[in-house]
Amino acid sequence: MRDVSKQSGFSMVEMLVAIVILAVGLLGLAELQITAMKTNSKSGSIVAASTVAQIATEEIMAVKTESNYLYGNMLTVAQVDQPWPDDPADISPLDGGGVDADGDGDDDFAVTFTSTPDAAGDGITDIQITVSSLMGNYLSTTSASAQAFKDLRRIYSH
Prior knowledge:
There is one protein chain. With 158 residues, the protein is an alpha+beta fold. The protein has one domain. Helix content is 36%, strand content 22%. Strands 1, 2, 3, 4 and 5 form a five-stranded antiparallel sheet that branches. The chain is rod-shaped, with a radius of gyration of 29 Å. About 3% of the residues have low confidence.
């Protein structure tokens, strides 16, 4: 008969406990990976919305003449939460108030603006731009805002 006390190795119970501890650790690591992916997606959406807001601001700052489509649509008329105006030349990435960031043909962001022309009597129009996500999933619901001041005294009539 063999003496049980001289056997070496792990018992079945010790192996099961070790496997359970390892499984709990791996589940925590998987949850960490999911959280990192969600955060990465959210930050990408914020960057995209901020880029669209920057493009809108640059379009406003580029207005040099009264013949520009933005001049009559937002710089001289008070507007509240209006969609971005259509560019008659069809060159604007913000055409129709929406932006297709991923190239699938659907607008991913809605661009709206509120303008207050010459409120202080100094010829400056204040424009608040808001870019909101239209992607609809909880990972990407994002909005970004920008503010532009355009000096109407520096616009030339043609």
